[in-house]
Amino acid sequence: MFSSDLCYSQKSKYDKVFNETSTVLLSSNPEKALQNTAYLYKISANNAERIKASMLRASLLRQNGMRNEAVKALKRADSLAVIDKNYNLQARINGFLSTIYREYEIYSLGKVHLQKAISVSKKIVDKNEMYKFQGNLYQEKAYYEMDSSNYLQAIIDLKAGKKLFELCDSSIDKKFQLAVNDELIAKNYLSLHQVDTALNYYQKAEKELAASASSESPLKGFIFNGFGNVYAAAGADNKALLYYQKAENIAQASNFFTLKQEVYTSLIQFYKKTNYKKYISYNELNLKLKQDEEKNRKINTNELITTLKEEQAVSESKYENIKTIVIGCCIFIIIVTAALLFLRTKKNGPDLEISNDTSAVDSSKEEIKSKAEPIKEYMSEVTESAILEKIEKLEESHFYLDKDISLNYVAAKLSINHRYLSYVINKNKSKDFAGYINELRIHYITDRLRNDSDFLKYKISFLADLCGFSSHSRFTTTFKKVTGVSPLTFITDLQEGCDEERMKN
If you placed Cys at 489, which of 72, 165, 208, 485 could pair as Cys (CB 3.0 to 4.6 Å)? Predict the structure, then answer.
């Protein structure tokens, strides 16, 4: 072990661990990957390497739904990039933060980081890197517009990004970047029902990808799926099916979750009109895909939380050791100082008169007494408002969907006393912690049922599991308590409403 380690220099050892973590462990062994990111940070020779380690850690945490922890890692990386005046990395970090906040649907914060990334990217010295990165930032801007259904503005942003990609030279895989961009433009035109223009951009994207260095990228599957959607919209079902099958083959071969999800969604819409049995079949495939992804993510997340807690425990242990040493040194200094003063006093004159004043002792007793008293559940309005704001901000992350959520866990996450948290919830939400969490879960699932018709097809047990309930019966009881009706009645009413709406149209 030692001899092989010595064969590597510090930098090559870092690169070896980094490459293994980013290319293999990131998806195959997240727990080991997380441990490696901590190790990489420890052996980093400079801030650039520390930033790379932190960004890799953020990628892993985001991939497994732990966005709060990902943001922490990125903010640490950003502070190092600012110190080094590394504009390239500052731009990347802020672009990454923008993406995470957009996924959180905290658009205001996301746009702040996006603007910062755009501003900093103008200072990147390497022109190719600058053009490529700014092109990517325009894609990020477009995603914000797409999320708000502003498809025309998204197209404007993507075309601006395309001009920047075209300025890059051959050192950048320009064709691939253009293919990604044109595939997104095509998607937006299709959302605007401009089928011919969408087809034109999908054809451009196909040619650009074929001429790129990544011609067999899963992007090919997204392009083929786009062709399928275009031909389905134009009524050319045979052509549509041909491209859907090509896209599905690439999705299966690459095992790319997002591509599979997109293809299954397209096939569900396609077969809804043409083949009811296959419509049901792809609905079940899509549901299983989501369940498997949710299950895998939960397993990985639990393992990552355990690893994070272990890291925190080690860190706290080191802190306690240092604290003990410091306290020990302080006590030693006090003893030595007291001894010297005593010797000096004895040497220089008569003993001092002992005072009968007991106020100091009484004061000490009062202090001890006050510390022993329980903390009152009273706080200033400012503190209460700050805690309430933290709670409501945390709600945006859907933290309550975690089955293992607890008062202590949330208090630690918000860095506040658990009794303060309980007090604020009781006072402002008019219910205890468990009631508050369960109500959030029910509101989440009713919102999904109202806004995503696919959820109306799911079993009650799956809906219960999805929103964080460990039992079907508890979910049903709580659902009725919050909404006034059972889950089955609620779903039936929504389905009847959808059927009536379709009959009107």
Answer: 485
